[in-house]
Amino acid sequence: MKTLKIEDLHVQIDGKEILKGVNLTVNTGEIHAIMGPNGTGKSTLSQTIMGHPAYQITQGTIKLDGQDLSEMSVDERARAGLFLAMQYPAEIQGITNFEFMRSAVNARRADDDQVDVMTFMKELEEKRNFLSMNAEMASRYLNEGFSGGEKKRNEILQMLMIKPAIAILDEIDSGLDIDALKVVSKGVNSMRSADFATLMITHYQRLLDYIVPDYVHVMMGGKIVKTGGPDLAERLEGEGYAALRDELGLDITLTDEDVPVV
């Protein structure tokens, strides 16, 4: 079992404090969802966990199996079992999907245990078919010319090939039509096991209809203010964040964009 433990995490970017005391523990075998108003720090949390240099930890810790992640580079965190499916995947010319994913897989393996081309190609084809992706995606440059839905599927394909212990999915459902959402959800659900955990960041209840979480966390004002089960997300869909804010007595201003999407 692997454990990601976040304690009293404070993070700032460009001198502005975004996270103001986040506490969260994720164990393999668990599915967690984080919801909350816009600008409350959900994506900041994901980027900080993976070590984006623009995000500065001013207080608190993030530990993976007891090791402080601040002591680890981004690639070391990935080799240790962390994976981030980004909200806005980058397009990279000159590197094919095939080359990128094979390099990522082998980077986590010993020099004498590298995956050969044919074995990798066979598994990639199986996973690609599972996610209903075209055969040409392997030879295309990484995300170049991909639609929004193709990029999100490609992130899930990478996850299936790399097989991380803990995957952070930053709004993996944004911009997806219902068919693409079902495919992406099928990919995530296929990974569910005692050796895998997911931390999903989402605005949409509909994602949680397909990937049912064990825990739902609500972030407001830069910290987690409420934790519950799937019923908590259903409550937010019906009542919105304002009702929970008022119940908890929080001094937080919400915008019209902060109404949960049905």
UniProtKB/TrEMBL annotation:
Belongs to the ABC transporter superfamily. Ycf16 family. The keyword Membrane does not apply. This is Fe-S cluster assembly ATPase SufC (SufC). Residues 4-246 form the ABC transporter domain. NCBIfam families: sufC. SUPFAM superfamilies: P-loop containing nucleoside triphosphate hydrolases. Keywords: ATP-binding, Nucleotide-binding. Pfam families: ABC_tran. SMART domains: AAA. It comes from Fructobacillus tropaeoli.
